[in-house]
Design goal:
Chain lengths: 347, 124
């Protein structure tokens, strides 16, 4: 009774493993004769399974595997002078679409050094590559579309701002003009949030930068002599979401406009300080002026709370308003004590 | 005593409402304002008015030449003319602007622009 030698058994096992591989695999000799081709290789590349073993790689199919570059690389691998790792090559067959392949090949360490053995793994990445390219194109398209929307919004806001200012110039009454220019300032404060969002690329706004820009605009349009009045911004490094920054910006606009209108009569010199601090869920925004103060004819209603805008926004932010005499001047603080305050109230 | 002549500024903006508003802001600020809605006319005006000291242009103008190209053309042909460009787009990198040109994104505050013009033209 004859039995297989250990060497024959090992070879048999290896060939079985190759045949069963789900990834297309080829087992070649040093002169590129096929010893075994996995069933998956034959299926993916439409090679008749019994026709593969014993034939040269360049002979199977319609000879499409005889690509010179692949042949020379495999020969170099067989000679031990190279190892093919993730080598990309195109497979062209007559009457068929080009396929993109990724080839990995190694020379195997075998007991018999006279018999060179190569293990070649071939992955067909055509579909994966097409998908990746499509995804990239879609992402690019989406970015362009977003930029176009942003562009249109900015242009529209410019038109709105222009219309308000032109209307302000046309009206007869000083009061109406005041309302329109205030409306213009409010639109600009919201528009500035849009701009900062577009810059940051996220839904959050860096408050210091936003409120500084806002106060610069207010100063440029309402302070005729910067040596007489100044607006100082003292904001920490807080970053807040878009909705909150719109509300904070509108509150600051309202309070600063009113301080400029009422706190410094008769060319009184002074300073308005816009401050913001945040610690955990607690935050506070304050607008303080060193002007004439409330007791000398600057009543609460004129402290920026007359329009109801600040109250409505404070309610929206679930914050409280505190008006204090800061002698000199007035200090208005909008603050949120955070969750603790809400819990305490509920108890 | 004669008043000093008003500084002449050329405004290039195609939207009529935005253009009218900016033109009035310039007049209120004490400038002499010329305005047009496209780059070709802007160049024609620069050809006949050597007293234009500053050009304020929208980067996106209709026709064959946009505001950015116009700005580069002005920098080349009339180097001393100051330039301010505005755009609704946020992706206008500094490298694409001609040297010395200032950029503001839309919507810009007219008072901020006038302040910048005063600064660039070194007025009190």
């Amino acid at each position: 009774m004859t039995s297989l030698t250990p060497s024959q058994m090992e070879t048999g096992t290896s060939l079985a493993i190759i045949a069963a591989s789900t990834e297309p695999l080829l087992f070649l000799t040093g002169d590129l004769t096929i010893l075994a081709a996995s069933a998956s290789f034959c299926r993916v590349f439409q090679i008749d399974p019994p026709k593969a073993p014993g034939r040269r790689l360049s002979e199977i199919g319609s000879g499409e595997w005889g690509m010179p570059k692949l042949t020379s690389l495999l020969k170099a691998t067989a000679a031990g002078s190279a190892e093919i790792e993730a080598y990309e090559i195109d497979l062209d067959r007559k009457g068929q679409e080009r396929r993109h392949l990724v080839v990995n090949a190694r020379k195997l360490d075998v007991a018999d050094s006279n018999n060179v053995r190569l293990l070649v793994a071939i992955a067909d990445v055509t579909a994966a590559r097409a998908e990746a390219k499509l995804k990239d194109e879609l992402v690019r398209e989406k970015t362009v579309l977003l930029q176009e929307v942003q562009h249109r919004v900015a242009n529209s806001l410019q038109i709105i701002a222009s219309v308000l200012l032109q209307s302000a110039r046309r009206v007869q009454s000083e009061e109406a003009r005041g309302h329109l220019t205030d409306a213009h300032q409010r639109v600009m404060s919201i528009a500035a949030v849009q701009h900062h969002l577009a810059l940051s690329g996220s839904q959050d706004v860096a408050l210091r930068s936003y409120l500084s820009q806002l106060c610069e605009s207010l100063s440029a349009s309402m302070i005729s002599d910067p040596t007489v009045l100044a607006i100082v911004v003292d904001v920490d490094a807080s970053v807040v979401d878009a909705n909150k920054s719109v509300s904070l910006g509108l509150i600051v606009t309202e309070l600063v406009i009113n301080a400029l209108k009422h706190a410094f009569p008769a060319h009184r010199h002074g300073k308005i300080v816009v401050a913001y601090r945040c610690r955990g869920p607690e935050w506070s925004l304050s607008v303080k002026d060193d002007g004439v103060g409330m007791s000398t004819g600057y009543p609460q209603a004129k402290a920026g709370l007359g329009t109801g805008i600040v109250e409505a926004l404070a309610r929206h932010l679930q914050a409280r308003i505190d008006v204090a005499d800061s002698s000199p001047g007035t200090a208005i603080t909008i603050s949120d004590e955070g969750v603790a305050a809400t819990r305490a109230a509920a108890v | 005593m004669m008043l000093p002549p008003k500084i002449v500024i050329l405004l290039v903006e195609d939207h009529p409402l935005v253009r009218a508003c900016m033109a009035e802001a310039l007049l209120e600020a004490g400038f002499d304002a010329l305005d047009t809605g496209n780059a070709t006319e802007a160049i024609a005006m620069l050809d006949i008015r050597p007293d234009i000291k500053l050009v304020f242009a929208d980067a996106d103008l209709p026709g064959t030449m946009d505001g950015l190209k116009l700005a580069h053309c002005i920098r080349e042909r009339w180097p001393p003319v100051k330039l301010i460009l505005v755009s609704g787009r946020t992706n206008v990198p500094d490298e694409t602007l001609p040297p010395g040109a200032r950029f503001f994104s839309k919507p810009y505050h007219d008072a901020v622009i006038v302040q910048e013009m005063n600064c660039m033209l070194r007025r009190a």
